[in-house]
Amino acid sequence: MRKSILLFALCCHVLLSQAQSRTDAMLRNLINSGAAPALKHILQYPDSFRYQLIYTQIDRDAHNVPHFKNYYLHVDANMYFNPASTVKLPIALLALEKLHTLSAQGLTGNTPMLTDSSWSGQVKVYTDSTAENNLPSIYHYIKRIFLISDNDAYNRLYEFVGQRAIHEKLRGKGYKDVRIVRRFMPLSEEENRHTNAIRFEDKGKVIYAQPPAYNTQQFNFSRQIFMGKGHLDKNDRLLMTPMDFTRHNSFPLQDLQQMLQSVMFPATVPASRKFDMAKEDYRFLYQYMSEYPSESIYPRYDTAEYFDSYTKFFLFKGAGHNIPGNIRVFNKTGWSYGFLTDAAYIVDFEHNVEFMLTGTIYVNRDGILNDNKYDYEDDGYPFFRDIGRIIYNYELKRKRRHVPDLSEFRLEYHKP
């Protein structure tokens, strides 16, 4: 009797797990039909590689209004992946939204932003050597976030928005499962709850001052998340126990896809889900979500290290450093602990093609976490490159009733 009950419970668990994972036959068959042996190997082991993919077809009507159709491959909100730097996308959006609400006080994206140290672990930031005027600002931090996924820039905007406001604003827009509770610096959970005093000055005059803040809000950490067979602790000691991600940042893939759509196509989402930003803020975002490090003057980057495909995973990462001039990728990537993630809107102006791809994969053959030894080059980047090529080649052949007008996304870039 007991064995029967256990078997029944196990079957229910398996069925529930299968029901939670969403796969569309169209996308599965499309990718399998074009997959090389290395990609087919990965596709055979969804539990090991923990890959998830959302392919978004975009079709325009006679008035150029976009309509979307999502196709899913092993998408499961309960399958945790570490979002890494993809959380910089919502932080940048919330910073611009807050800036917009404060604009009546004379604040702009270029107003110098001076950060004080108000609690243990915090840092003072009064200058920025990568800016033309050597001063930090909201706009300049966002440039750094999208051009090379700069961690320091993210930390400063996390502090500007505030931990409590991050979650209240995102939940208000329907992103109830997004959790952003950490800066990218070695701080405790308590230290991450504290955010700095910040002031904005113009020619020595304080335009806006923000006091230090502490978030008393409680988070639901009841779902425990352990990964790997071993990990290095903060003292670089190898412990042969799984790593605990229970209290880490979390950003489900469907939420990431929806957020990217809300940025690139704000008119297509309900008003309650939109980020309240000025029109010029959207243009600013499009510029730096798609610009390459080689096209940036301030900041200026060493393009041997920060090459054009540095943060462009789909289609291009691992396939050489150059990207054809007819293609632009508006995206945000993340990489950490063996997880690679990308949310991208891809445009080919020559062939009038547009589509979105949002995906994640875990590549860590030895099962040891926090050792900085992951299989990004061998497995991760080729996965994104090959998936991107399969979908792009399909999009080149896909019939559209109306040719899209993509002029909204044609921008001017500095030629290196």
Write up what this structure looks like.
A hairpin with a 5-residue loop joins strand 9 (230-232) and strand 10. The chain is globular. The longest helix is centred in the C-terminal third of the chain and has 22 residues, at 376-397. Helix content is 33%, strand content 18%. The strands form five sheets. The chain has a five-stranded antiparallel β-sheet with strand order 2-1-14-13-12, with helices on both faces. Strands 3-5-6 form a three-stranded antiparallel β-sheet, covered by helices on one side. With 416 residues, the chain is an alpha+beta fold. The chain has one domain: Beta-lactamase (3-Layer(aba) Sandwich), CATH 3.40.710.
Structural key phrases:
five-stranded antiparallel beta sheet; Beta-lactamase; three-stranded antiparallel beta sheet; single chain; 416 residues; alpha+beta; 18% strand; disordered N terminus
Concise synopsis of the structure shown:
This protein is an alpha+beta fold and 416 residues long.
Q: Judging by the overall fold, what is the CATH architecture? A: 3-Layer(aba) Sandwich
Regarding CATH, which class? Alpha Beta
- Quaternary structure classification: single chain
- Overall pLDDT metric: 94
Would you list the SSEs in sequence order as H and E?
HHHHEEHEHHHHEEEEEEEEHHEEEEH
N- to C-terminal separation? 74 Å
Write the layout of secondary structure elements.
Elements: H1 2-20, H2 25-34, H3 37-43, H4 46-49, E1 52-60, E2 66-73, H5 88-102, E3 113-115, H6 138-148, H7 151-161, H8 163-172, H9 189-193, E4 194-195, E5 198-202, E6 205-210, E7 213-214, E8 226-227, E9 230-232, E10 238-239, E11 243-244, H10 253-264, H11 279-290, E12 327-336, E13 339-348, E14 353-362, E15 368-369, H12 376-397
Parallel strand pairs: 9-15
Antiparallel strand pairs: 1-2, 1-14, 3-5, 4-7, 5-6, 8-11, 9-10, 12-13, 13-14
Helix pairs in contact: 5-6, 5-7, 6-7, 6-11
